[in-house]
Amino acid sequence: MTDTPAQGPPSQRLSGRRLNLAIAALAVGGFAIGTTEFTIMGLLEQMRADLGVDYAQGGHVISAYALGVVIGAPVLATIGAKKPQRTVALALMLVITLANLSSYFASGFGWMLASRFLSGLPHGAYFGVAAVIAATLADPAKRGRAIAMVMLGLSIANVVGVPFATWLGQQFGWRTMFLLVGLIGIATLVSIRAFVPDIPVRPGASIRTELGALRRPQLWMTLLIGIVGFGGFFAVYSYISPIMTEVAGLESTLLPLVVALYGLGMVAGNILGGRLADRSIMGSIYGVMASITIVLLLFPVAATAPWSACLFVFLVGTSGSTLIPPLQARLLDVSPGAPSLASSMNHSALNTANALGAAVGGAVITAGWGFTSPALVGAGLAVLGLGVALLSGRIDRRDAPAPDGGSNGRSEAPATAGTPGAVSSAEGVRVP
Hints:
Layout: H1 16-42, H2 44-51, H3 55-79, H4 85-105, H5 109-137, H6 143-172, H7 176-195, H8 207-212, H9 217-237, H10 240-247, H11 255-279, H12 281-302, H13 306-322, H14 324-334, H15 339-366, H16 373-399
């Protein structure tokens, strides 16, 4: 059979303990990235006061990181197209490590701003190449779970890494958070070097081939699903603090527990999303988008009582993160010649969704619609995301090869069609 970019040849696959160690090494890198991305928000006041800047300038530090993610994901993934994947992963993690150590030593606002931008540059590209490595090493039937386990590092960071790093920064100074991430980065470099095998460069890989994926409408439609669908998710999470204190009536001292609930939901959703992706990529996307819509529609009612508000915070985290593994797998399938670029751009899309959700949520709150209004707007965005997914699936079915060997009037078949044992993204069933 012909191997797709979403799976490697049998000679490259691992199993058992060797596979688990390789994926764990990559996941530790995700843990470092999640910790540095989100902890700064909890230490922003200390950082702002120490650097002598106002709140607007302090916020620019967060924006600089997000901008680095959006720019760095496609650029670095394309540049690394002709390099061995393990080498690319090591190089990206080295940049993350050095950038965080630079933030630790930053003596002024400009230095900090530049360091945070540099920290964000490898973010999406790292997750992109890590997902490709995991899909290459794993059995095709367990590809979704392998990708999900790599992404699990990011989810666990929200439960363990962010609270611990925040506490560390409060006790010993906000800069110690960056030192912690730097040490985790060093551990990741050692682990990847020890446990991730050296995978040869994919035949035909080139910068031109990677960029050629940008001509595929299905790539952009999949990215749009993430931007719009996750825009609704972030519309709620961006304003979870006033929702829980002003609407649910929780004490502000309990907010760390609320954030932990959200993180646990992300862990559960990430695991669930991997399993669903192995059963049906497009089917799982349809179902998850519908679930996000329902959860967000019910959230304003649930937010009026502390116990139900906490339950739905968990469900918001679960439903949102369940979408990540099938989207990542879908991007691998719709870009057979450019898996690294496509997979990396997923994180550019998610950071764009972060900005979109925060902006839309803030706009409706400012308009006087109330603190729970972002959930309703988010539900509307999720419906739009579901509509894009349904249209994308319809195009797959239209372009699928006809039973007589034709192409239903189209020349291009879905990326996974005809691959024994693969999941058909058009129909959501396993091809015999």
